[in-house]
Amino acid sequence: MNNGECNGGCGSDSACEGCGSNPQKQDFRRPTHERNDIKKVIGVISGKGGVGKSLVASLLAVALRRKGHKVGILDADITGPSVPRMFGVHKPAMQAEDGLYPQKTHNDISVMSINLLLEDEETPVIWRGPLIGDVVRQFWTDVVWGELDFLILDMPPGTGDVPLTVFQTIELDGVILVTSPQELVNMVVKKAYNMARTMEVPVLGVVENMSYYECEGCGKRVDLFGESRLDAVAAEMGVRALARIPLDPALSALGDAGRLEAANVDALADAVEMMENL
Fold it and tell me: Which stretches within 12-156 are classed as H helix?
């Protein structure tokens, strides 16, 4: 490269000042493991942390499995993995000559997470972005998922390295956005929506978590985090409003106990039907 000029072969994952190349215009997609037959790949994303994205991704996997589908969940949140804990999966992933094998939940959902590769699940992952991106790519290319009807990707929050790696590396059938009633969250989730659109990934709809609390005694609904804006937010982005998930202490307790597969997933019926009809 001379005088700021580029021959277009820089191969950078980020925009190049010399040639003006844009990463979303190049094809970085990688094939999955040769033994895999994955019919649909769905990402679950949010603009910020703390909205229950991992919970929604896991509940979608539970709901799909209950309908008889073969389901896997890839925990792409490398620095904040929580999926194995919610399913009560603690045994390490199995390494074989032909690849890495995920662990199974009680109801036969395949799970892969960085926590299944650590000696201690509480060990922090203190890595820079490129290394984290490499691990996510390997979860796609080196893991033997086998035959799946759905692979759910629990993405890290934000619009940084890992979401970009996923959007570039994996051919997604679409993404589902997760938000909560707060106005600030709705503003930030639109960043994730705009990133997906920029990367030409279909946005399938929006799920609002912690939408309300229903009093066990009187049945009254209380808007703890403000009135739901799901319909308005979905309309602004031109996507479907898929579900309102209540704030439920029993649901949190099931996740903490590793028994999420016993959770009520009725609220996600429309989202599951949409995914089945893709």
Answer: 53-66, 83-87, 129-141
Inside any domain, residue 25: no
Domain that holds residue 96: 31-276
Residues 102-145 pLDDT 10s? 999 999 999 999 999 998 889 999 988 889 999 999 999 999 99
pTM of the model: 0.88
* 141-163 pLDDT, tens digit each: 999 999 999 999 999 888 888 89
The amino acid occupying position 246 is P
Token digits of residue 98: 């032909």
60: domain CATH number?
Answer: 3.40.50.300
Neighbours of 184 (CB within 10 A): 10
Strands (E), the chain: 37-45, 71-75, 94-96, 99-101, 103-104, 110-112, 147-154, 174-179, 203-208, 213-214, 221-222, 241-244
Residues paired with 176 in a beta bridge: 44, 205
Q: Which 3 state secondary structure label does DSSP give 1?
A: coil
